[in-house]
Amino acid sequence: MSESEETTGVDDASQSVDGGRTETRGETDGVDERDETGAEPTTTDAQSPSTLDTDATGSETGEYPLRVENLRKTFGGIVAVDDASFEVERGTLTGLIGPNGAGKSTTFNLITGMHTPDEGRVLFNGEDITGLPPHRVADKGLVRTFQIARELSEMTVLENMMLAPKHQRGEALWRSVTPGVRDDVVRQEEELLERAWEMLDFFEIDHLAEEYAGNLSGGQRKLLEMARALLTDPDMLLLDEPFAGVNPSLEHRLLEHVHELREQGYTFLLVEHDMDLIMQNCEHVIVMHQGKVLTEGTPSDIKQNEQVVEAYLGGNV
Ligand SMILES: Nc1ncnc2c1ncn2[C@@H]1O[C@H](COP(=O)(O)OP(=O)(O)OP(=O)(O)O)[C@@H](O)[C@H]1O
């Protein structure tokens, strides 16, 4: 994936771990159409009875900040996501797994606004965010990590950090002649710089601050991507294969940071191909297959689920 669009988000925290919500979902059909990168909001009013919550204050939804309801996305004749529904519990590290082509990345893209669903909706902290463009989704505190774009490789690590929350009161105001506003902007920049150093320190890459991002190892880049995402002060992070190409010792460090952040109350949804990693680190696992949510539960539930084994072996489920 690419590009970076992140902003200040909501800071909220409360923990509750443990899953145990195991269920197998059935099939539904929807409209089969194309369309792709539309940025316009597509809000569907249909609500499934079990997830009627939507209190904009989030009071009814604190336990499950993210709810995905009956999402469907087609590309031409290909049904990438087919009536997918699930929830992510606050303060958990939840894994989204499935064989190649199961619809995981498309689901991520639907949640974060990179794609607009044909049907269904996405609720975050009780608010319907379906079809919002990525920067607006990030504004709500739901942030995904982005690979460092090629053009940013020629900037230093610290410069990359300073670019992260770009929707702050800033550019338009720079030209303002109002002294009070200018002071405000300068203060924001100082605070941002301080926080950038804190994050670099947290991820133990502060010694690389002046290094060009392009010179970092794969693992160091992943640390920088995570640090950048956190600089926007999100409520929940979506990680798409954060450990791909990372050597074992950096992977271990990155995982330690993720667990530490989870203990602080951050919520994570993680797509990862390494099954052992998912099973050892996630409290809850959602399995997709052929665009649908096949099942979900604790790692031990999932390990014992024959449908999951069959899906991975390419059998019929
Ligand atoms: N932009 C697109 N245009 C056409 N088809 C697409 C597009 N994006 C995804 N697909 C198709 O949708 C299906 C689901 O793809 P998706 O990438 O979401 O699966 P995935 O579970 O992330 O797979 P992988 O683990 O291999 O990355 C696949 O058949 C894929 O070829």
TrEMBL record:
GO cellular component: plasma membrane
UniProt-recorded Gene Ontology molecular function terms: ATP binding; ATP hydrolysis activity
InterPro entries linked to this entry: AAA+_ATPase, ABC_AA/LPS_Transport, ABC_transporter-like_ATP-bd, ABC_transporter-like_CS, BCA_ABC_TP_C, P-loop_NTPase
The keyword ATP-binding is annotated on this UniProt entry: yes
Transmembrane regions listed in the UniProt entry: none
Name of a matching Pfam family: BCA_ABC_TP_C
Domain ABC transporter: 66-315
Ranges for region Disordered: 1-65
Keywords in alphabetical order: Amino-acid transport, ATP-binding, Nucleotide-binding, Transport
One BP term from GO: amino acid transport
Sequence ranges of Polar residues compositional bias: 40-60
Role summary: Probable component of a branched-chain amino-acid transport system.
PANTHER family named in the record: CONSERVED COMPONENT OF ABC TRANSPORTER FOR NATURAL AMINO ACIDS (PTHR45772:SF9), CONSERVED COMPONENT OF ABC TRANSPORTER FOR NATURAL AMINO ACIDS-RELATED (PTHR45772)
Entry's family note: Belongs to the ABC transporter superfamily.
Name this polypeptide is given: Probable branched-chain amino acid transport ATP-binding protein LivG
Organism of this sequence: Haloprofundus marisrubri
Source species taxonomy: Archaea, Methanobacteriati, Methanobacteriota, Stenosarchaea group, Halobacteria
